[in-house]
Amino acid sequence: MYNNEPEILNPIRGTTEISWETLEHEHIPVSNDWYWTIGLVAAISAVASFYYGNIVFGAFSIVAGLTMIMFKIKGPEHIKVRLTPRGIIVKNSLYPYGRIESFWIYEDSGQLEQMNELSIKSDRAFLPQIIIPLGDADVELVKDYLSRYIKEEYHEKTLADVVSEYIGF
Questions:
Q1: Which of 6, 16, 128, 157 could form a cystine bridge with 137, CB 3.0-4.6 A?
Q2: Any idea where the domains of the chain sit in the sequence?
Q3: CATH 3.30.70 correct for 7-26+79-166
């Protein structure tokens, strides 16, 4: 059952776990022109690639364009996020505090379609920075809870995050 309210399992000072449900990423509605643009860019890239003999990139262009369109049509999933003494659990993936270097919370700046996000930087070589939407979770409560286990440090958004926000993901 979807609930926008954060669920605090022990609301006294010694809170042992905080959890909330949210969308896996911010949903940004797009017009039909967006779909046409993605389709045309993919088709033109594929045709040019095939013309110059680069069949692999042509196939990649078609698959990438179709994947973007399918993910946009499907929309974001509802996910459950839990902060526990062991680590951060997103869906069924555990990110233990021992492997997380720091966290940062990007707070709503009052812009339209902006939501609070938790950024965690881990020691993983692939995808070391993970952005988790906070939904309606209490920002100060999350900040206080995580400060017990890991340090708070400003994180620059990655190029992939900036590009995905720009194109509507």
A1: 6
A2: 7-26+79-166, 32-74
A3: no
